[in-house]
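An instance noted here:
***
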Amino acid sequence: MGTVLDTTVFVELQRATRGLPPGQAMQTVSARLRDRLGGGEEVAIASITASELLHGVHRAAHEHRARREAFVEAVLSAFPALSFDLLVARVHARLCADLASSGTDVQAHDRIVAATAISAGWRVGSANTCQFSRIPGLDVTLISLGGDDQPE
C-alpha cells in the first residue's frame, strides 16, 4: 500500500522547518515519514496538492515568496504527483455522486485527493483528517510531521 499525502502535511511541515534550508527540510520530511509510515511505504501527492502548494507560493508575501517557492519545489522534486486521469475521474464521479446522495459534504480538493488515493488502492495521509473521515471506505491516517501526532 502507498500513501497520498494531503497539502496539510506540507503546510504543517513548512511551519515546523521554517529557517532550515530546503534540502535539510526534505531530510526532516523523509525521516519523519519513515517514522510514521515505515521505510518501505510508497508516498506521493495528488496533482491537486501540487496546485495547492504552488498557489501558496503565488499568494505569499514578497518577503516570504522565495523561501516558500524553494520549499515547494523541493517537495515537488521529492514526491511524485499522481495524475488526474480517466480512472481517477471515474472514481471521483462515483465518489461525488455517493456523497451527494448521502448528504455528506466534503471540500472539492479533498474529494480529488480521495479519488486519487482510492484509484491507486492507497490511503490518504493528512494532518487534518476531518474531511477525509467523512468518505466511506477511504483509508485515512493522521500524519503530523511538524510535531507529535495528536488525535483530533
Notes: The longest strand covers residues 42-46. The helical segments are 7-16, 22-37, 47-59, 62-78, 86-102, 108-120.
